[in-house]
Amino acid sequence: MTREEYCVKIKEAVENINFKGTCIGYRPYGNGHINDTFLVRSRQTDGTVLRYILQRMNHEVFKNPGQLMENIAGVTGFLRKKVKSEQGDPDRETLNIIKTRDGNNFFCDSIGCYWRGYQFIEDATCFEDVKDPDVFYQSALSFGHFQYLLSDYPAGTLHETIPDFHNTPVRLENLRKAVKEDKSGRVKEVKAELAFVLEREKELHILMDLYEEGKLPLRVTHNDTKLNNIMIDNATGKGICVIDLDTVMPGFSVTDFGDSIRFGASTGAEDEPDLSKINFDLALFEVYTRGFLESCSKSLNETEIDMLPAGARLMALECGMRFLTDYLEGDTYFRIHREKHNLDRCRTQFKLAAEMEQKWDLMKQIVNKYR
Ligand code: ADP
Ligand code: GN1
Ligand code: MG
User: Is the domain of 199 the same as that of 279?
Assistant: First the structure.
């Protein structure tokens, strides 16, 4: 699709979603790797301008956008009630879907692209990196609280939007397949990374084994707990809203914790090409652990708390494996902005996992301090 054709589709979506007022412009927004996000500006009859979020859902990744939106409508409706009962502001403390003009939760355009609208959460910011440890602490409180609020959500009604999303052994199988097929002729470049994974092969089962033994419960989790999926209120500095709900599904609390750590408790960006700038930051690990346990330890069992360090290491390994798989498959999943982008991402994750191994006892001590 050319840029012009794509613009026509955006316009079609804007016209069909029930944004109030007259659209006066839209532009790409945010830094996600999967969906296409736009900021829409709309003039009201009194001259004021309202902002909205418009997203094209990636239906290569999310094979059933209808089911996905059913999940989001269910979860956000449930959260609205909970937020109200806590005397919070349901227009800012959860995502709110803007329905289409004919009352649906999403719009399917004439070429089969899927679009949705959200109210824009004003006066709040998404941070791409941890400049201020308090922001990381706030994100821990928010993700922990999110899990706590959803602890009595009817999990059986949720669709699995991406099967085996955090099933690490399945991710390993996908990597093996990509190596075997070597579609892009890149296997020869990544021998060291593959050896790193294979040395740890046995440990990749650890959470799935505990689940099968009945020690690790399935909960309603977010599954994509990067710092930039939390909005921080500009006035109070508090975490105000958990966004990016595409992967809310039954999962492990430990992987929600771990995904935040692998992204945020690092001295550099997820895609930093200079590995000398990447270190696992134990002080940030402590900040997040404190916040997470403060907000949801009352709903976690002993095994879950014991496994928090393992979850962090496993998520770094798993995410690194996913970037590596995509590199070998020719960069078809994660959006890239330069050559070897996915390989750089993979390497930061493996470096973090290796450093966690060196700091293992200290990680455990920190968890024990706040349990
Ligand atoms: P992706 O799945 O591609 O990461 P997100 O849903 O996280 O997409 O949205 C991308 C970015 O758009 C976010 O990081 C945030 O900056 C912004 N954003 C998303 N939803 C809202 C919203 N309701 N209000 C304000 N900003 C938002
Ligand atoms: C993707 O959409 P975004 O950028 O929030 C991915 C996550 C990865 C993350 C790595 C649906 O998240 O699982 O951890 O990139 N989301 C999906 O940055 O695959
Ligand atoms: Mg996001």
Answer: yes
Q: Which one of 82, 99, 120 terminates a domain?
A: 120
- pLDDT confidence of residue 124: 98
The residues, ordered by sequence, that sit 6+ positions from 159 with a Cβ below 8 Å of its Cβ are: 64, 67, 68, 70, 71, 249
Q: How far is the CA of 231 from the centre of ligand 1 (A)?
A: 9
What's the pLDDT score for residue 177?
Answer: 98
Question: How confident is the model over 145-169, as pLDDT tens digits?
Answer: 999 999 999 988 999 999 999 999 9
Task: Say if residue 61 is in the same domain as residue 138.
Answer: no
Question: Is residue 255 in contact with ligand 1, taking CB distance under 6 Å?
Answer: no
List of the chain residues with pLDDT < 50: none
Domain harbouring 300, CATH code: 3.90.1200.10
The protein residues having their C-beta less than 5 angstroms from ligand 3 (an ion) are: 32, 229, 244
- Cα distance between residue 212 and residue 13, in whole Å: 44
Closest CA to ligand 2's atom 8: 224
Do 191 and 333 share a domain, yes or no?
yes
Domain span at 16: 3-120
Domain finish residue from 90, 120, 150: 120
| pLDDT of res. 8 | 83
Spatial neighbors of 231 by CB under 8 A, at least 6 apart, are 121, 124, 125, 126, 239, 240, 241, 243
Strand partners, 231: 241
